[in-house]
Amino acid sequence: MGKRPRRRSERASRSLWRKFVFLVVLLAAGGAFLFAELSERGGGFIRAGELLSAAHDVLHAPQRPSVSRGGATEGRERTSSLPVPLQSLPTAEGPSTGRALLFPGPPPEDADAPEVSAKAAVLLDAASGRVLYAKEPHARLPMASLTKIMTAIVALESSSDLDEVVTVSPNAEGVEGSSIYLRAGDKIPLRDLLYGLMLRSGNDAATAIAEHVGGSVEGFSFLMNEKAAWLGLSDTHFVNPHGLDAEGHYASAYDLAVLSRYAMENPTFREIVGTRVYRPRVTPSGHGNSEAVWTNKNKLLVTYEGADGIKTAYTDRAGRGLAASAVRDGRRLIAVVLNAPDDWNDVRKLFDYGFTHFPLTPIVHKGEVFTGVRGSYAALADLAYPLQSDEVSRIGRFVQEADFGPFRPNAFLKVYLGQEAIGSVPLAPLSGDAGRGVSPELRP
């Protein structure tokens, strides 16, 4: 009789041990699955943006092959078994809230892509992050004054007051190359230095900013590299704030496009690089008695419809370079060319190609009705994506249902271009089991 409690205890211990082993195996399997999903995306190396996109895909990916005979997938998440043709679904009106997510998607293949003089070039759709054109996108090349995009964004994000006064050092005065004619001892507002940096490409302004924000050129370069790592710029490294040729100072066209996309989301940065003419509040003493007037070197601002930034570049080693942004009908494209003898025409060709060959195509309409295993749903947001005409037929849309609780959307519409996820739209339940126990605020 006295041994029974021990046996029960042993059985309980074995049961707990089995549960623990099962949990470990489950976590290991999940980790292996996530690693496999991520590895397929990058061929071994994954950028930060791709990591987030891939992790989202793993968590919300439709289980297309695993559909039971009864029409429902096993487990708590259910997904419709076949892609829904773009033209086959009805639409429904209804007030709703929500936000669609866009992913970069696959690179296009197009025989009509333009020829450019650049050694490396990238055209990027800003909203989705999709690369519309690429030529040697990950080649590590000298970037010259495109460096100053990072200099400006680090300074803007590190400073709460752009009117704070910067005292110019002898080191800043003595830097070679393009200049806004600073002299040691000048006291210049940070705002003026940023305009001189981005409009006139002042290397002296870059050095003064770096010493003010980072304590030294080396300290500021550390901040630049920290920001590059945060953005996932794996083919970029900075050793100075101005871009003068130096060993270990390089970037890729793709990384600079990602950086430009990020920088153009900052309204102050956008205002600076979109300014055609600027009169500094304090004229650097190197101008003598004349008033300084700075004209933006980016001539696309006056020669290309919709152009609104961002930076020119040149050194003997880097050649000509240009990062540019243009907006038409509310849609922004980012173009970067490196070592480009015909940089202005290269960028014009890329913008024309992107706006013409990749129209923003509506894929999901807010209020549109979709049917899942549990019932019907309405889309809580619009979703549009840059597509070539022959890509529209490759779009697939899948209803994914999951138990998220009564106060969150319990379904998403996953949008695919071929096998690549390009977007996700939250859905609100309309009927069937899908609508039970859901907060009224989530209903369309």
TrEMBL record:
Q: Source organism lineage? A: Bacteria, Bacillati, Bacillota, Bacilli, Bacillales
Single GO MF annotation: serine-type D-Ala-D-Ala carboxypeptidase activity
Which family would the database say this protein is a member of?
Answer: Belongs to the peptidase S11 family.
User: Which superkingdom?
Assistant: Bacteria
Q: Which UniProt keywords apply?
A: Carboxypeptidase, Cell shape, Cell wall biogenesis/degradation, Hydrolase, Peptidoglycan synthesis, Protease, Signal
Q: Where is this region: Disordered?
A: 62-94
What Pfam family is a match for this entry? Peptidase_S11
Species name for this entry?
A: Brockia lithotrophica
What is the name attached to this protein's record? D-alanyl-D-alanine carboxypeptidase
From its record, what is one biological process in GO terms?
cell wall organization
Residues where substrate binds: K311
